[in-house]
Amino acid sequence: MNSAVTTPRGTGTRNTRILGVLTIILMVLLTFCGLIFSGEDINQGSTVRIMYVHVPSIWVAYLAFGMTALCSAIYLSGRNRSLIWDRFSGAAGEIGVLFVAVSLVTGSLWGRLTWGTYWVWDARLTSTAFLFITYIGYLAVRRLGGTHRQRARRSAVLALIAILEIPLVHFSVNVWRTLHQKASVADPNAKVALDGLMLFSLFLGLIAFTMLFAWLVIHRQRSLALEDAVADRGLDAAIEARREEATN
Amino acid sequence: METVIELNGVVAVLGSFPALAGVNLTVQRGEILLLQGPNGAGKTSLLRVCAGLMPIERGTGTILGIDLATNRQDIRTRVGLLGHTNGLYLDLSVEQNIQFWASTVGASKDEVANAMRTMRVDGRLAKVKAGQLSAGQRRRTALASLIVRRAEIWLLDEPHAGLDAAGRDELDALLRNAVAAGATVVLASHESERAASLATRTVTVDGGGAQ
Amino acid sequence: MDHASFIIGSWVLTFASVIGYAVYVIRRGRELSKNATSEEMPWT
Amino acid sequence: MSTVSQRRRVAVAVARKDLTIEWNSRILVNQVAPFAAIVMVLFAFALDNDGILQRVAPGLVWLATLFSMLVVIQRTFAVESADGALDALRVAGVDPSAIFAGKSLALMVQLFALELLLVGTAVVLYGVNMTLVGFAEALVTLLAATVGLACVGTLYGGLAGGARGRETLLPLLLLPVVAPVLIGATRATEAAFGSGGTKVSEGWPWIVLLLVFAVIFAAVGSVAFGPLVDE
């Protein structure tokens, strides 16, 4: 205990620090490549530069929600039901919500430039919005209270339902758009002719953001573990206090 | 003697409050165990844990030989709990309520009629909505629904509350009959004199523990 | 660069949200780890 | 664990109990149905144009259904928690999937009645004309949509109604999930009503979507209801 006080405390370790520094370097590189070095697209002009943050954000969001579902499944299927999987789900869910929000906003800014409007009822946009709301619900359920295990089981089940529901929502929204009325604006997948440096920037963005996600999820998982530990310590103290009631 | 309830260092929490802070308790078949203690001592939580309703956070326990940590669902089919609330549907009549609880275990019409007669909620009362009953009548209805459930362990939280003198005598007789038929009774009560004369053993619950 | 405000805005918004969240996570971790025992921090 | 016949018996008992409660209290008839009707009138005020109303009538019917459904679901779980009956059900060892089936079944019956009323209101208030085939299609749509809605509604209603202070969670959880039903049912109903010149035959694929949704959530619900509701 004593020796621990002298060492710097927190959720970081040597490895996460290395990961963090690498992430920062790649992010700086990405900024230069994306904003300065890379050229303009033939169709989209300079607006294509939004892509280098927008696409990696939504990629991270999908990655995060996938991880939430995967860790929830591991939690439920594990024999000892280790809470670490629950915390990984929670951390990934939270980060996913952050990145889906970021990509919705950057996407609508991009949309304003290329389509002339912030929002179109395009299938992909609409189902992304649903994704956002669904996982806000997931985070709300995580905060419902109860013991750690109650929280873990409830939210793990919900995460698995969500992953089932997403394709259904996506499919129906998709059919809704394509059958009902043709999108009046440009295809959101408008062919962007990417030259070498642009492609490089996009890949750089994907790698940098994935590393960022890894860094965030590790730290968040650890700080969630500490939150649980604080609650457990509170419980120990409360049990002591409760026992003392009896002797009086 | 057969042990039907065995709890070792059981901790159960309500939110972040440890309602039970390490309970050790052993109950044998055929006992009528009285739980005594001040308000907030943990009597209700103890009964809910025994019913498999409240999860245990720490410690171990078995009810009727079934592990509390893993198989709470199996325990529930074999115990009966009468809590603070009566578990009645206020918009259903007395008879409809008892009939419903009977149908969840597949009890026959005769059993329903018998239970209603035993708790004197037959006749005119049978057609009255539970929401319009007096507190004592509701308690009787809840007890009648408990009878049809044919529980092996009866867990009763303040069963005498709201009952008149005749009702209390009937309840005591009912519990003695149930025990004679092989059941075990655990009850929490403030009616210490009456309950003590009924009980075969008394345990004091305080500060989330039991002595 | 055309539409510089939108483009820079997107980048700034992205990085600001991420940095804001990262700072929150790190701070919370530091604060909580002050009283934590080593067993509660298996990564150390 | 419990056998299939036991489960079926309990499910029927739970469904009958919920419907008896409705029969005794008439909350649906006396409160929810008038609420749904007034919503339909308010839509007319807000849109204030006969042509538009006729065109969007199917969507309004289903929006009104969703809003009323929230009220009905809250009611069906308030009934359980008013006197601790849900605890009693749990302690009775009743299989959660049987409770789920029973409560969904009762909710289906109530929702179906409500939807019939809303379609009737649309026909009267918004001047919708239906052919006989269209009417049959509308009925099939109602049935298919109702099964899905009742299953998801019961699932999330149980989660949100399990404890105090969670009522506000229900719309947040439920409305995103039922988007496919709203889309499918609205399109199918448009075909049935012939709104905007849609042909009756265009509705059937949407009904397939509704059925897929219903099957998925009936299955998910019977597995997930226990862990979600049980503490």
Head-to-tail CA distance between termini of chain B: 21 Å
Helix count of chain C equals 1
The named CATH superfamily of the largest domain in chain B: P-loop containing nucleotide triphosphate hydrolases
| H/E element sequence of chain B | EEEHEEHEHHHEHEHEE
Q: Low-confidence segments of chain C, ≥5 residues, pLDDT <50?
A: none
Largest sheet of chain B: 6 strands, mixed
Task: Please work out how many helical segments of chain B DSSP would assign.
Answer: 7
Quickly give the structural class of chain C. Answer: mainly alpha
- Please give the most extensive interface between any two protein chains, plus how many residues each contributes: A-C, 43 and 33 residues
Principal-axis shape of chain B = globular
Mean pLDDT of chain B: 88
Question: Major sheet of chain C, described briefly?
Answer: none
Number of domains of chain B: 2
Uncertain residue ranges of chain B: none
Q: What share of residues are in beta strands of chain C?
A: under 5%
Describe the protein.
Chain A has 248 residues and is an all-alpha fold. Chain A has a domain at 64-182. Chain A has helices spanning 2-6, 14-37, 51-77, 83-114, 123-142, 148-180, 196-247. In chain A, helix 2 packs antiparallel against helix 7 (196-247), helix 3 (51-77) packs across helix 6 (148-180) and helix 5 runs antiparallel to helix 6. Chain B contains seven helices and ten strands. In chain B, strand 4 and strand 5 form a beta hairpin. Chain B is globular, with a radius of gyration of 17 Å. Chain C contains one helix and no strands. Chain C has one helix at residues 4-33. Chain C is rod-shaped. The relative contact order of chain C is 0.08. Chains in contact: A-B, A-C, A-D, B-D. At the A-C interface, helix 2, helix 3, helix 4 and helix 7 of A face helix 1 of C.
Could you write a compact summary of the structure shown?
The radius of gyration of chain B is 17 Å and the shape is globular.
Topology:
The complex is a heterotetramer of chains A (248), B (211), C (44) and D (231).
Chain A: H1 2-6, H2 14-37, H3 51-77, H4 83-114, H5 123-142, H6 148-180, H7 196-247
Helix pairs in contact in A: 2-7, 3-4, 3-6, 3-7, 4-5, 4-6, 4-7, 5-6
Chain B: E1 3-14, E2 17-28, E3 32-36, H1 43-50, E4 58-63, E5 66-67, H2 72-76, E6 79-82, H3 94-105, H4 109-118, H5 135-147, E7 153-157, H6 165-180, E8 184-188, H7 192-198, E9 201-206, E10 209-210
Parallel strand pairs in B: 3-8, 3-9, 6-7, 7-8
Antiparallel strand pairs in B: 1-2, 1-4, 4-5, 9-10
Helix pairs in contact in B: 3-4, 3-5, 4-5
Chain C: H1 4-33
